[in-house]
Each structure stands twice: as structure tokens, then as C-alpha cells.
Design a protein that fits this description.
By secondary structure, this protein is of the alpha/beta class. The chain has eleven helices and ten strands. Helix 7 links the parallel strand 6 and strand 7. It is globular and about 60 Å long. Bound molecules: ligand C2E and calcium ion (3 copies). This is EAL domain-containing protein.
């Protein structure tokens, strides 16, 4: 029994080493990928409530890895945050989205901002610098923030948000409803938009309660004069429900998956010449 215990320990020990080695590998590879411009941005269109018109785009980062294929951000953003890589990564994403955004006149481009990136000193300046260097119209940039940005120093977050709004940049509160104090944030901070978290739609069919919550969120958002967007729309039933509620914008696989920018060009071309 004793040796079995020892074996088990070394088993876990080696598993730990394995995990650490993996993280280190990801970190080194990611650092290189950012430096050597190997990341790519996909874009997922946001649609009008009737589902016929593209009204905006969300940039979503992808990492084409030579051995492991297209890696999803859910697998590397956390590591990037831990290792301080999310600052250069975030700036790369912002710059590329502003560059690409010039291809699509009149459309707003949304960029996800990690709380760590947002709280980093000099974030507002980096946004100003990128806007200046790319010549992208500030009012066509939308930053998607989560409640995490105000953890810690809420006053600093508020100041940064006021500065960004003064530049003309729009602010969206992402994953709305997943935190526990979203309502307080809506009252205090100057958002233009809320994005209802996908988890509400996922459970909507299963429980009537989720539908009631979505209903309340849409009405609350509209009453506050915010643009209300639902993400993760996958079924016609969800679409009908959200449209009937008065949701302004819809995003999800029902309409389009995130796609490379050339595919967006094509979709917009089709839209212009039906
Ligand atoms: P998010 O900001 O909530 O983005 C929405 C995620 O839901 C995306 O996953 C998108 O592909 C996925 N999605 C969209 N429609 C549907 C649908 O109908 N059904 C389902 N099941 N999923 C849908 P993705 O691209 O893997 O991104 C995951 C998360 O990674 C994002 O969640 C965001 O938090 C983060 N992320 C992505 N790109 C960036 C980035 O450039 N910077 C930062 N800081 N975070 C990013
Ligand atoms: Ca988002
Ligand atoms: Ca979201
Ligand atoms: Ca999410």
C-alpha cells in the first residue's frame, strides 16, 4: 500500500510537471506568435433584429499553431493574462482590428479587452496611439469590457472609461448577467451597449426562468437607452423570441460563425448587391 501511495504521488507529480511544461511551451510559442505576427483575427457579424442586415462586427482572435491547428482564445487568453502577454496581444488585436475595419466603411468593429489589459497603466494612451496610427475613426471602435475591469480600483476604471468615451470610442458590457452586480455597473458606468450572455439563451428552453430573465434584461437595457445585443443565437425559436422582445442586435451561429475577413468582404458584397 505504501509503494502504491508513492507511485500515485509520482504519477500526480509527473502530471503536474506535464501541465507546467505545457504552459511554458504555450507561453513561449505565444510570445513568438505575437512577435512574428502569426495570430489572425476572425470576425463575427452582428445582425439587425430581423436577421437581414449586418450592423456590426466582433473581432475574435485565433492562433494558427503549426502543430496543433487553429487554437481558440479560450485556451490561451488565460495563460496570456497570467504571463503579462495579454498587453502585447491586446495591442496587436486592437491594431489589426482598426486596420481591417477600414475595409468596411460605416460598420462598427468591436474588440474584446481583457480586464488586465484595461487596468494596465497606459491603456487609454495605447488606444489613442493605435487610432492615430491607423487613422481609424474612433466612433467606429467599440470596446467590449466585462465586469472584471472594475475589480480593484473602480475609480480608475471609471476615469479610463470617461477618457475613452471622450475620444468617441463606444463601450459595451460583455457577458451581461453573469456577474452579480451588473445593475450597479450599468448605473455608474457609461456603457452604450449590453451583450446578454450566451448562457441565458442556452438554458432558455430548459427553464422558463431564463426566458423571464432575458425578458427583464432586454427591457431594462432599452429603458436605460442602451443598445441590447444577444449573443449565441443558435435557433429560429431564440431569434423569434428575442426579436419580439425588442432586442436590437443578434449574434450567433444561426446567422454566421466567426469567419476570416475575406468572408466578411464577401458577405457585405452580397448584402450590397442582392
Ligand atoms: P466572448 O467575447 O463572449 O465571445 C463570444 C464567443 O462565443 C466566441 O468564442 C464566439 O465564437 C462564440 N459564439 C458566437 N456565437 C455562438 C453561438 O451561436 N453558439 C456558440 N456555442 N458559441 C458562439 P471564441 O471566439 O472562442 O472566444 C471565446 C472568448 O475568448 C471570448 O468570449 C472572449 O472572452 C475571448 N476572446 C476572444 N478574442 C479575444 C481577444 O481578441 N482579446 C481578448 N482579451 N479576449 C478575446
Ligand atoms: Ca465579446
Ligand atoms: Ca460575450
Ligand atoms: Ca462569453
Amino acid at each position: 500500500a505504501k509503494s502504491e501511495g508513492r507511485n500515485r504521488m509520482s504519477f500526480f507529480q509527473s502530471r503536474m510537471d506535464e501541465t507546467l511544461r505545457m504552459r511554458k511551451m504555450v507561453e513561449d510559442d505565444l510570445r513568438r506568435a505575437i512577435k512574428e505576427d502569426q495570430l489572425v483575427l476572425y470576425y463575427q457579424p452582428l445582425f439587425s433584429a430581423d436577421g437581414t442586415r449586418i450592423v456590426g462586427l466582433e473581432a475574435l482572435v485565433r492562433w494558427p499553431h503549426p502543430e496543433r491547428g487553429l487554437i481558440s482564445p479560450t485556451e490561451f487568453i488565460a495563460i496570456a493574462e497570467e504571463r503579462g502577454l495579454v498587453i502585447p496581444l491586446g495591442e496587436w488585436v486592437l491594431r489589426r482590428a482598426c486596420e481591417d475595419g477600414k475595409r468596411w466603411p460605416n460598420l462598427r468593429v468591436a474588440v474584446n479587452v481583457s480586464p488586465i489589459q484595461f487596468r494596465h497603466r497606459g491603456f487609454v494612451e495605447s488606444v489613442m496611439r493605435v487610432l492615430e496610427e491607423t487613422g481609424f475613426e474612433p466612433s467606429r471602435l467599440e470596446l467590449e469590457l466585462t465586469e472584471g475591469v472594475v475589480v480593484g480600483d473602480a475609480d480608475a476604471a471609471e476615469a479610463a472609461m470617461i477618457d475613452l468615451r471622450a475620444l468617441g470610442v463606444h463601450l459595451a458590457l460583455d457577458d451581461f448577467g453573469t456577474g452579480y452586480s451588473s445593475l450597479i455597473y450599468l448605473r455608474r458606468f457609461a456603457f452604450d451597449k449590453i451583450k446578454i450572455d450566451r448562457s441565458f439563451l442556452e438554458s432558455m428552453e430548459a427553464t422558463g426562468e431564463s426566458a423571464i430573465l432575458v425578458h427583464s434584461i432586454v427591457h431594462l437595457g432599452r429603458a436605460l437607452g442602451l443598445i441590447v445585443t444577444a449573443e449565441g443565437v443558435e435557433t429560429k425559436e431564440q431569434h423569434r423570441f428575442l426579436q419580439a422582445l425588442g432586442c436590437h442586435q443578434l449574434q450567433g451561429y444561426l446567422f454566421s460563425r466567426p469567419v476570416p475577413r475575406e468572408e466578411i468582404d464577401r458577405m457585405l458584397g452580397l448584402q450590397a448587391h442582392p
